Structures are given as structure tokens and as C-alpha cells.
């Protein structure tokens, strides 16, 4: 009973509440004819900054890439498909970790033998973040202060913003079965990767802070729940995953697609929270979880130091990573 409560009732109730809030906000925006959600102008000047956005050809990644580009940043679009990436570049030119998948109903594995969501949403990004930060640390000459135009006022030259989700409240990380070989549930797999993201950010930050006395590299890590956003990912989950019985999916799909713009946040509005994470003072957000445009407390599990240390060990082993000195 308590498992059912934690994994289903709690996340779906919190989700339903967020849908309701979105509905009210979207109706309000629509009524205010002169200020729709898409014309809001979130803050940020990214001149002199280089931003790598994963999954930048679609959804939140694409809107983030556009928002940073429009604010003077140099954007690197990290996409798995060259042609979809090039289409996104063209769209950017005409006018800124976000790749992920959500709750496929059937379990599948990557060529590395890992559950797909675990690798795409979590371990791939964990390794990317580790290597990027480690690489920067190795390039940095000892004792040289970070250049003013690339560093934050407190000297952090690198910021990692990891897209996670409030669905992390429904997670249960079983280290004996991280790949969900027994009793797969798409939603549990997704929630686990989102909890893992928050834990990883906390661990990256703590390790870097401990090392900072010995190494010149300084980086800021934070995780963001962008809201429930009207993208293919959220649409696909609402209309096609294990949340809805297969028999009724066909019937309700058009209806759900029609109401999505009302109960979900637009990608450009979601970007406001990401831009806050990208531009807020380092001390305010370092190692923190951000939702609704401000730092909030994630679930108790997500604040558990033993859990994050254990996940770090598992990630290191599964990705066969030699941990860089700046994280030791
Ligand atoms: N939408 C929401 O309500 C919501 C809420 C909370 C958190 N998030 C998180 O935000 C992030 C972006 O979600 P979104 O809603 O923008 O999704 P989206 O519109 O479906 O975009 C997903 C992106 O991930 C890429 N991707 C998918 N599978 C991949 C793989 N195997 N390898 C590399 N890239 C892959 C896609 O590339 P292709 O185009 O090549 O498939 C696409 O660029 C995800 O981490 C998601 O969990 C979303």
C-alpha cells in the first residue's frame, strides 16, 4: 500500500495539481491578449559565454538554445541526428543537460546493455558532465584567475544545468536492479533517472567544492524541473505510455493533444526557469534543485548523501570512468 502510495498516488497528485496551475496560468495569459506566455522576456545576457545544449533540436532544448542565442551566447547544439541538428541551426539562424525520453511502455536496452532511459536520461549525461568539467580543469593553468568575461563574479567558469523533473518523487533506486530487469515500469524508470540527476548534481557539487582548495577549476551544478512542458515527450507520455490503458489510447489521443496546450507550459515559458538557473548568482543555486523559477527542496531521497555517494560509485563502475582529480 505504501509503495503504491509513494510511486503512484503522490507523483500523480502533485502532477495533477501542476496541470491545474498551468491551466489557470495559460487561461490568464490567453485573456491578457497583449502578453501571451510566448512573448515574455526572461532575463539574461550570455555575451562571451559558450553554452552546450543537449537535445537542442527539439522541445525544451531547442527553446533554451534559441533563448540563449538571442541573448548573445554562443550555442553548441548537441544532437544525435545530424540532419535534425542542422534543421535546428537553420531555424536559429533565421531568427541554448536537455535530451531525454519518458516512460516507454516496453523495456529496451542500449547497445551497452543498459535500460534505455537510464543511459539516455542519466548515465550519458553523467559521463558528459564528468568529462567536460575534468577537461576544463586539466586545461586550466595553475594559479591563473578565470578570465572575467567567461567567469561568474565568484570565479566559477562553468555551469551545469541538468533537466530533471518533479516526477523524481515517485522514484525508487534499487541498486540490485538499477536496470529494471525485474518488474519494469516505464514511469518508475523515468522517475529513477530524474532522481538520479538531482543526486548526481549534489554529488558533483560537493566533490568539486571539497577539491576546490587543491584545484583551480570551479564549477556550479544545479538541477531544474522546468514544469510540465508541451513537448513531444510530455505529449507522448500522456497519450501513449503505461499511464493510459492501451485500449483507450486511440480514443483519447486527439482529445489529450487538444488539451495539452492548456494543461502544460509552453517551452518558451519553461525556459524562464532555465534562464534563471543560468544567470542567478552561483552561491544561490550551487548544488540546488530549482522549480517554478526558484530554489526549492527536492524529495527527502534526493537530499540523501549516502544515496548520492552510492549512485556515484555505481555510475563510475557502469561507465568505466577514471574519476578526474577535480572530483576526488
Ligand atoms: N516536457 C516536460 O514536461 C518535462 C518535464 C520535466 C523534465 N523534462 C526533461 O527535459 C528534457 C527535455 O525534454 P523535452 O520535453 O524537451 O523532450 P523532447 O521534446 O521529446 O526532446 C527530447 C530531445 O532528446 C533527444 N533524445 C531522445 N532520445 C535520445 C537518445 N537516445 N540519444 C540522444 N538524444 C536523444 C531528442 O532527439 P531526437 O529529436 O533525435 O529524438 C530531442 O532532442 C528531458 O530530460 C526531460 O526528462 C521534461
TrEMBL record:
Gene3D superfamilies: NAD(P)-binding Rossmann-like Domain (3.40.50.720). Pfam families: adh_short (PF00106). It comes from the Eukaryota. GO terms for molecular function: oxidoreductase activity. InterPro entries: NAD(P)-bd_dom_sf (IPR036291), SDR_fam (IPR002347). Keywords: Oxidoreductase. This is Uncharacterized protein. It comes from Symbiochloris irregularis. The lineage of its organism: Eukaryota, Viridiplantae, Chlorophyta, core chlorophytes, Trebouxiophyceae.
Amino acid at each position: 500500500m505504501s509503495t503504491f502510495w509513494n510511486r503512484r498516488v503522490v507523483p500523480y497528485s502533485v502532477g495533477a495539481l501542476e496541470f491545474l496551475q498551468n491551466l489557470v496560468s495559460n487561461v490568464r495569459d490567453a485573456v491578457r491578449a497583449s502578453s501571451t506566455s510566448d512573448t515574455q522576456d526572461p532575463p539574461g545576457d550570455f555575451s562571451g559565454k559558450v553554452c552546450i545544449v543537449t537535445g537542442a533540436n527539439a522541445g525544451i532544448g531547442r527553446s533554451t538554445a534559441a533563448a540563449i542565442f538571442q541573448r548573445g551566447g554562443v550555442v553548441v547544439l548537441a544532437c544525435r541526428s545530424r540532419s535534425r541538428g542542422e534543421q535546428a541551426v537553420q531555424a536559429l539562424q533565421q531568427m541554448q543537460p536537455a535530451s531525454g525520453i519518458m516512460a516507454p511502455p516496453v523495456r529496451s536496452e542500449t547497445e551497452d546493455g543498459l535500460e534505455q532511459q537510464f543511459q539516455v536520461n542519466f548515465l550519458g549525461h553523467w559521463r558528459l558532465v564528468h568529462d567536460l568539467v575534468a577537461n576544463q580543469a586539466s586545461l586550466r593553468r595553475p594559479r591563473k584567475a578565470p578570465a572575467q568575461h567567461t567567469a561568474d563574479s565568484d570565479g566559477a567558469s562553468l555551469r551545469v544545468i541538468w533537466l530533471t523533473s518533479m516526477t523524481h518523487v515517485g522514484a525508487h533506486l534499487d541498486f540490485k536492479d538499477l536496470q529494471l530487469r525485474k518488474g519494469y515500469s516505464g514511469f518508475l524508470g523515468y522517475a529513477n533517472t530524474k532522481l538520479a540527476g538531482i543526486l548526481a548534481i549534489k554529488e558533483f557539487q560537493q566533490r568539486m567544492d571539497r577539491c576546490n582548495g587543491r584545484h583551480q577549476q570551479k564549477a556550479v551544478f544545479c538541477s531544474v524541473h522546468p514544469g510540465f512542458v508541451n513537448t513531444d515527450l510530455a505529449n507522448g507520455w500522456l497519450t501513449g505510455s503505461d499511464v493510459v490503458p492501451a485500449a483507450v489510447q486511440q480514443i483519447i489521443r486527439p482529445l489529450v493533444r487538444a488539451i495539452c496546450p492548456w494543461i502544460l507550459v509552453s517551452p518558451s515559458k519553461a525556459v524562464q526557469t532555465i534562464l534563471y538557473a543560468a544567470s542567478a548568482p552561483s552561491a544561490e543555486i550551487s548544488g540546488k534543485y530549482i522549480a517554478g523559477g526558484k530554489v526549492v527542496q527536492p524529495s527527502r531521497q534526493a537530499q540523501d548523501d549516502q544515496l548520492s555517494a552510492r549512485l556515484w560509485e555505481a555510475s563510475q563502475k557502469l561507465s568505466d570512468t577514471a574519476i578526474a582529480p577535480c572530483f576526488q
